[in-house]
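ENTRY TYPE: paired fold submission
RECORD: A
CONTENT: sequence, then structure tokens
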Amino acid sequence: LESHPEYTLIIRDPGLLRRLVLRPDPLLLAEAYFRGTIDIEGDLYTALGLKAHFERFSLSWRDKLALLRDALLLRVSDQDGLKPSRSLASRVARRFSHRHSRQTDQAAISFHYDVSNAFYGLWLDAERVYSCGYFKATDDTLDQAQRNKLEHICRKLRLQRGERLLDIGCGRGELLKFAAERHGVSGVGITISREQAAFATGLCEGLPIEIRVQDYRELDERFDRIVSIGMFEHVGWKNYRTYFEVCKRCLKDDGLSVLHCIGTNGEPSRPDPWIEKYIFPNSMIPAASQVAPALE
């Protein structure tokens, strides 16, 4: 029987190989796929296994010199589409440089979240919860997993009927709606995304919930409980202490605060270049070594 490969790697411009040998760059490889210069026919996930293969692969100095010689012989087309990008994403990423001023934070949040609520509706749950779900059972739907997560957070907050809840980076208002309906609280949600604020206002209509377009640094009022889900990644390490000072200023003496975010116990590092340029400009994964001193 004739066998067929699980996948075929297609490179439409040999100049791409030259560039990758002379300047190994995961972003260059990703952009080549993004622009169609490189493609995969067949099983994409099997092809991604090449990453582990090349990480273990080792060449002798003689082989490296031969590879460099062969790469230099490859012709680079003037039309290869792999020159430095002048796209909006590229300009935004260069502009921010992780300054995390109010202006750069506003622009970065708008770049990511103000695409449109309809876009996020294509792949999120019905209420647009944009953070990890909690799958308690293997047959939980995405909607159920998000309700599980919201209830889990409310229990961590030990919400009591009549309390006032602040949601910093409230997204589309899903937690505030859930807490008001299930636990009888009132609340304030702040976001600097106008698309999120518009959706949240509609979602929480008729409930004792106020949605504001407001920077967290402007807050100066007291709450029984404070929560933040998936917003801390946009704060930046230079502002971690500022964030916790705001929480201290706004939380009642007997209050509780819950901070939910992606984190790492490894060394602080910059985001993946692809994520930085196209998805989450100006974002940063908080490291325990950065967060702990800010809390002290």
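RECORD: B
CONTENT: sequence, then structure tokens
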Amino acid sequence: EFRHGLMAELRRSDAGGHSRILTLLAGTADPDIAPGLLRWQFDPEFDAEVRELAARAVERLSQGSLTVATTTDASNLLTERGASLLKSASSRFASIRKSAIVTELTSRDFRAELLNDATSHLTDAVALDAANSRASSLLLVAKSAATDPALSVAASTAAGQTVSDLAAALERALEIGEANAGIELLRAMRASDFSQIAPETLDLVARTLRSAVNSPDPRIRFLACDAALNAAHTDISSTAVLRTFKSIREGSQKPEAVVVDSNDQSLRNLDVALEDTGFAVVPCQTGQDGFDAA
């Protein structure tokens, strides 16, 4: 806790404080702190003394295992660390929608801690390399993941972002299964104006919304369908959109399965079997029908 307190103070302190805190951190034995000091080692915003102290601290804490030669390399390393923390926050707590449950059981909100660490790493990655688009997208995901996922809540962190930035971040969120971030990004996206965006951006939006419309999370499917209707792009499956709205209206939160079989009896058997295991089944007798339904 003391070491993490020093890291937090490092971000708030002035130039003189940087030197004192880096000297203290260099005397600790926590290698996990080392990546968090890369910004102070490479960012030209800091003077030469601070950068040298940070470099020594990184070498000492990592025992020479963290060798980064350039600002770009440092930014990329921080991006991958941030992405890994985001994946951990998503996968470890995927079935828990209220962080208070974890806090009640453990007295700590581990998901919030992982998201805070991811946000710090990704913030540093962007500060070191503003052209690092992956870091920028993941940073928006990390910030969005900390918002209230209730459908009745308006977009906050993601509000005001460009449609292209929202789509890029949503693509990342879907890749790592970060549902809360997906909800926040879609809340902002469905309130966006699609009339003036470039064709290549609309294609990115369409590709991302197609993935979101088929998400296993019913909240994401609903919001994606709403945004898809707003985008009015022909590449987004209207069948899937209408099916999702029907499912939401009827109160169904089942995962969906499209079954294709030209044999009526086999199709019925598969339909029943999948329904019994909790799926909402869309039976189709031809490949084209199955493709359209999916």
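NOTES ON RECORD B: The CA atoms of residues 7 and 224 lie 39 Å apart. The longest strand covers residues 256-260.
STATUS: closed
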